[in-house]
Amino acid sequence: MVAQIKTTQIETQQTKNNHDRPNQTKTNSTDSNSLKGSSIVTPLKGNVQVFIAPHRNLYADIIAQALRVAGQGTQVLLVQLFQTGINQGLNNPRRLVENFEWMRCDAQRDLSQHEIVLTDAEKIAVLDLWDYAKVAIKSSPMGLVVIDEVDLLVERSLISEEELLHVLETRSPKVNIILTGRSMPSSISDYADQVTHRRN
Fold first, then answer.
1. Is the whole model's pTM more than 0.85, yes or no?
2. Contact 141, 77 (CB under 8 A)
3. Could you say which of 45, 80, 120, 157 would form a disulfide bridge with 148 (CB–CB 3.0 to 4.6 Å)?
4. Mean pLDDT in residue range 54-69
5. CB burial class (10 A; 0-12, 13-18, 19+) of residue 93?
């Protein structure tokens, strides 16, 4: 009986306190609603790595990194925009291992040499690969996208430096990117999380 009386007194006191402070209760409710609409945690984005080298080799450590990521079950895309292969291109991707897709340009000659002038068909073949890479960077389940000799896209006026930077800035948060080239636009190097200069 004593326990029941004490419980009733406590409940009565709590009800009275709530009636005395209606504004405080309303304020707390408003604060919790405003917190629901705002995100306190900023989502992390994948890294952008830039490798600058005097030679056009796709270095073994980049391939090794891609293979390691693919071996962990993550989708990897390697795009060589100006390297060509027989019966390659968008319709004939190569698969090194599971989760690792490798694409080269559909053309009949090496397009990376500085002295050559690209034909209209070759420009279309290169830009088709670039468009595919852009989609992969923005919205596909790729965990790593490697784009080889991306500097030549800008150098040969196939795309603008601003377009390349925009693609990096609007990438999917889950995508990591590796860009290679003999040089790199300053805005891209400044934006990258890591820039590696190779001497040979």
1. no
2. no
3. 80
4. 87
5. middle
